[in-house]
Write a structure and sequence with these properties.
By secondary structure, the chain is an alpha/beta fold. It has a single domain, classed as Uracil-DNA Glycosylase, subunit E (3-Layer(aba) Sandwich). Helices cover 42% and strands 14% of the residues. It binds uracil.
Length: 201
Amino acid sequence: MNSDNRTELLRQIKDDVMNLKESPLCRDRVRNKVFPVIGEGSHYAKIMFVGEAPGKTEAETGRPFAGAAGKFLDHLLKSVGIERKDVYITNVVKDRPPMNRDPLPEEIALYAPFLDRQIEIIRPQVIALLGRHSMKYIMERFGLGSVILSISRIHGRVFEAASPYGKIKIIPLYHPAAALYNPDLRSVLEGDFQVVNKSVE
Ligand code: URA
């Protein structure tokens, strides 16, 4: 089972992102001593979490969800007995947008093919979407564009979709950072993580 070349294919993605020249987001990597954030976790993960883009701590460390939102993500994983090392965590956009602004459509278009490749290599059963940018991109990508509503209306719902490697489940969730500003969302996210956990076969 572990005899395929996922590690090599994922390393290739890292090299390709490192070699990107056309994104304004990657121009200041050297001067600002920041890194792109490719992704982290099991190359055989059944669950993939997809966030929006790296923030300050992530760009400084090269690791996804390494800051305050990541601490809450760690709590959410723990609350349902999932170990962080057993899932794969990544973002749509791989370099930090300045001042944490929303990613621009052209930035999503540039970086999303790397996410597509990560999904094809890791073949998760469940893709959990952290926030509205990953919800929009992934749901449209998997033919679910017509059922997209605001996160407040579809968070925690399980959508089935076809992928090149079989059926998958797609679950939109609030972004963990939203719960840092609105504590009422903590228990909503905790409930939705139970849904994510139960969706794995
Ligand atoms: N927010 C995201 O969307 N992704 C990260 O990696 C960190 C914060």
